[in-house]
Specification:
This protein has 14 helices and 17 strands. The chain is an alpha/beta fold and 426 residues long. Helix 12 packs parallel to helix 14. It binds pyridoxal-5'-phosphate (PLP). The site of pyridoxal-5'-phosphate has 15 residues, from helix 6.
């Protein structure tokens, strides 16, 4: 009889990726743990690439969804009014937007991050009547053609075939700490002979999830947002991965003194791993004609049900953010200790979106394989997957976080001698 794992190699496209570094067949999951078909338990430091900020199968979301389905709730709604959508919109407005003094219209796009990014780019181009978009080095905005044009990684860009309308600029820190890349951007935008066409938008992630946990400073972000305003461009924050609490606040830019024109949310917005994305639009630039940007799956009613529970359960008060803040500190401390075991490595990122840059792709692979063998599911980002990323659910209790980090520490120590990079200062 064929092994269960053989079916994937036999029938699934070569394009499959995560399963190559973690080939176990997963069956069930609860909280911060996943289980494979042979009953092995893994601590989950991947969390569905950031789609499970509240862990697997949260009991309140699960029972709300089961009750909704048992009551024959509408499953598919195009963009018809449904009670589930209305309840989500009310909760999002009351709990997330209003307390933060944020005034946005909510557009339901297709259910993936890239769908919402496409909508943001298209709307920015429509509103400004311009084509060019500024995107940054190491950015990841998705892999459909418009978003891919703004994505940096050559592996995904496939030689840039057909990718248009984007000017690449260096992200904060791209040349180290001595060069302020927002000044470079200012110069390029100010100089009418720089060859950079007036942009419709500047799109960025405050922490680059796939790009290797690079992050912007508040000063850099404010300068870039100011430049956008000055040059008639819209500022788009792509919060697909860094949003929904991942950095410690609901939005990654929350404490940074900037109010973007457009905000993209996806991944954990449904709270339950169900596909759902939204584009937040400053009301005066909500210039779509009815149906102008459409799609069949713009509103996943099941995702609305769990999203409403997630928002009310975790964001109605300040406690959850405080707990996440505490856990982020714990994570930072432990990662700094682990980094000491591997010369040249360093801690990157912020909040519950931190990791270890081990510089070498092979070392990163070896560490993650050892982690998997010892019961920890963990992935990597960066140009060569050299940054091992801790993306544990935000709800992971301290003891489980410590256990997972101990598995990581032991794997890093084991492979430290494989790391032949000269220690760098600072
Ligand atoms: C910042 C960011 N934007 C966009 C996307 C694309 O989202 P999706 O894979 O759901 O299309 C991702 C996915 O990792 C992301 O991290």
């Amino acid at each position: 009889m064929a092994r269960l794992t053989d079916v994937f190699a036999a029938h699934e496209s070569q394009v499959r990726s995560y399963c190559r570094s973690f080939p176990h067949v997963l069956t069930t999951a609860k909280g911060s743990f996943v289980y494979d078909h042979e009953g092995r338990e893994y601590i989950d430091f991947l969390a569905g690439a950031g789609t499970l900020n509240y862990g697997h199968n949260d009991p309140d979301m699960k029972s709300a969804l089961m009750a909704y389905i048992a009551g024959d709730g509408i499953a598919h709604g195009l963009d018809l009014h449904t009670a589930a959508k209305g309840d989500f919109l009310s909760a999002f407005h009351e709990v997330v937007l209003e307390p933060r003094h944020m005034d946005y219209k909510v557009q339901f796009t297709g259910p993936t991050g890239t769908n919402a990014v496409e909508a943001a780019l298209k709307l920015a181009r429509k509103v400004t009547g311009r084509t060019n978009v500024i995107a940054f080095t190491n950015a990841f905005h998705g892999v459909s053609m418009g978003s891919l044009a703004a994505t940096g990684n050559s592996h995904h860009r496939m030689s840039g075939l057909g990718l248009q309308g984007v000017t690449r600029m260096p992200y904060d820190g791209y040349y180290g700490t001595d060069i302020d890349t927002s000044e470079l951007l200012a110069r390029m935008l100010d100089d009418s002979s720089s060859g950079v066409d007036a942009p419709a938008a500047i799109i960025l992630e405050c922490v680059q999830g796939e790009g290797g946990l690079n992050q912007v400073s508040s000063a850099w972000l404010r300068h870039v947002a100011g430049l956008a305003g000055q040059h008639g461009a819209l500022i788009i924050v792509d919060d697909c991965q860094a949003g929904c609490g991942r950095t410690g606040t609901f939005f990654s830019f929350e404490d940074m003194g900037v109010m973007p024109d457009l905000v993209v949310l996806a991944k954990s917005i449904s709270g339950f791993g169900l596909p759902m994305s939204v584009l937040l639009i400053r009301p005066d630039i909500d210039r779509w004609e009815p149906g102008e940007h459409n799609g069949t799956f713009r509103g996943n009613a099941h995702a609305f049900v769990t999203a409403e529970v997630a928002i009310r359960k975790f964001w109605a008060g300040a406690e959850f953010a405080e707990v996440v803040g505490h856990r982020s500190g714990l994570l930072r401390t432990r990662l700094a200790e682990i980094a000491e075991a591997m010369p040249g490595s360093r801690v990157k990122g912020r909040g519950m979106m931190q990791g270890l840059d081990v510089i070498d792709e092979d070392v990163s692979v070896a560490v993650r394989q050892t982690c998997a063998a010892n019961g920890l599911l963990i992935e990597a980002g960066g140009t060569h997957d050299e940054v091992i990323k801790v993306m544990a659910p935000l709800t992971t209790d301290d003891a489980t976080l410590e256990r997972g980090l101990e598995i990581l520490r032991s794997a890093v120590s084991q492979h430290a001698e494989d790391q032949r990079v000269t220690p760098v200062a600072g």
